């Protein structure tokens, strides 16, 4: 498979007045063309920071990539020029943020907001100038009528009537706003879609519709997707592979079958599955993971999960575990040798 995104030894810090927050610590990740990779972990594990690093969109004067490599196709993201980054964002890689309420401009119609993406990025395609599909082929700017037709196409693609393109965000429900955000992200048919908990603010019925739509669009457009989520059920339904993130590191990664079959999992992954209600068993209480994730300003010397792990030995507290590979399944734990 073609390796679309390659991240090697990524370290990201946030510098505050009081401390240095080590948000991502030596992260390695590969994402292949057309693949959906689920990135799972607790709040504060570094998932959103990883996605922002891929876009090179960390907050100015606060977030810093101190070490590492991010390769998107042939582009070295961390050494790209401002013009290369502007061209990349939206055209090569797009991001769906958590909250559609804050992702849309309340003073512009949804049609204007989708058209803006096309005006910045899209180019007329010689092979299909009427629709403007596959922008960026000929180097000529799209005309206003072509942009209008493309906006209609995109809205139909995400299941919204094109007639509503002249309405404002406050006239749409939460699920419809999320569809608009997805439409903006897909407007230029990017090769990579970063979806940061895209269904968190939606009810279960709308969540299922949005996930099904994203799955269908991925198949139609061949877009790879990095899906950030807390929901292991969503991962099982949507993803090809799963990466478990803890304290800024990938501690386990494998196919959905590798992770969900429950054999040879990292103790943290076992804890995540143990926290999920099992409808086949009659139990009075859930089994949460004891303790809290370590303070990112004072990470432990050894395995970051050791203070919460019931299987931890002395070596776990003093030495970081190496990656152990079993076929397609990687676990970073001293217990697996």
Descriptive account of the structure:
It is a single chain. This protein has 337 residues and is α/β, with parallel strands linked by helices. 31% of the residues lie in helices and 23% in strands. It contains eleven helices and twelve strands. β9 and β10 form a beta hairpin. The chain is globular, with a radius of gyration of 21 Å.
Question: Quick summary of this structure?
Answer:
It contains eleven helices and twelve strands.
Helix and strand succession? EEEHEEHEHHHHEHEHEEHHHEE
Strand order of the largest sheet: 6-7-8-3-9-10-12-11
Oligomer: single chain
Shape: globular
CA(first)-CA(last) distance: 28 Å
Largest beta-sheet characterization: 8 strands, mixed
Task: Record keyword descriptors for this entry.
23% strand; 12 strands; eight-stranded mixed beta sheet; 337 residues; globular; 11 helices; alpha/beta
Write the layout of secondary structure elements.
Elements: E1 3-15, E2 20-32, E3 36-40, H1 47-55, E4 63-72, E5 75-76, H2 82-91, E6 93-96, H3 100-103, H4 110-121, H5 144-157, H6 174-186, E7 192-196, H7 204-221, E8 224-229, H8 232-238, E9 241-246, E10 249-255, H9 256-260, H10 267-274, H11 314-318, E11 323-326, E12 329-332
Parallel strand pairs: 3-8, 3-9, 6-7, 7-8
Antiparallel strand pairs: 1-2, 1-4, 4-5, 9-10, 10-12, 11-12
Helix pairs in contact: 4-5, 6-7
């Amino acid at each position: 498979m073609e390796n679309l995104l390659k991240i090697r030894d990524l370290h990201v810090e946030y510098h505050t007045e009081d401390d240095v927050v080590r948000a991502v610590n030596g992260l390695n990740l590969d994402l292949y063309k057309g693949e959906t990779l689920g990135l799972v972990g607790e709040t504060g594990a570094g998932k959103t920071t990883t996605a922002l690093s891929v876009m090179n969109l960390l907050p100015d004067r606060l977030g810093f990539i101190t070490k590492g490599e991010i390769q998107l196709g042939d582009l070295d993201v961390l050494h790209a020029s401002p013009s290369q980054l502007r061209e990349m964002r939206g055209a090569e890689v797009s991001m769906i943020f958590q909250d559609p309420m804050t992702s849309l401009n309340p003073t512009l119609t949804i049609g204007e907001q989708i058209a803006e993406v096309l005006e910045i990025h899209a180019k007329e395609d010689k092979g299909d100038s009427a629709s403007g599909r596959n922008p960026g082929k000929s180097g000529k700017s799209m005309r206003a009528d072509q942009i209008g037709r493309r906006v209609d196409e995109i809205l139909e693609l995400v299941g919204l009537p094109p007639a509503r393109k002249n309405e404002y965000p406050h006239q749409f429900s939460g699920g419809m706003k999320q569809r608009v955000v997805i439409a903006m992200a897909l407007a230029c048919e990017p090769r990579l879609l970063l979806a940061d908990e895209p269904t968190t603010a939606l009810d279960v019925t709308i969540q299922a519709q949005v996930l099904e739509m994203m799955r269908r669009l991925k198949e139609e457009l061949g877009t790879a997707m990095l899906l950030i989520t807390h929901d292991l059920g969503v991962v099982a339904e949507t993803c090809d592979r799963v990466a478990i993130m803890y304290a800024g590191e990938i501690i386990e990664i494998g196919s959905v079958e590798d992770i969900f079959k429950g054999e040879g999992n990292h103790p943290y992954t076992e804890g995540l599955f143990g926290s999920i209600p099992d409808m086949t068993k009659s139990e009075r209480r859930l089994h949460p993971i004891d303790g809290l994730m370590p303070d990112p300003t004072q990470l432990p010397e050894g395995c970051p999960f050791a203070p919460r792990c019931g299987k931890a030995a002395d070596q776990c507290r003093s030495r970081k575990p190496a990656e152990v590979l079993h076929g397609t399944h990687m676990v970073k734990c001293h217990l697996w040798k």
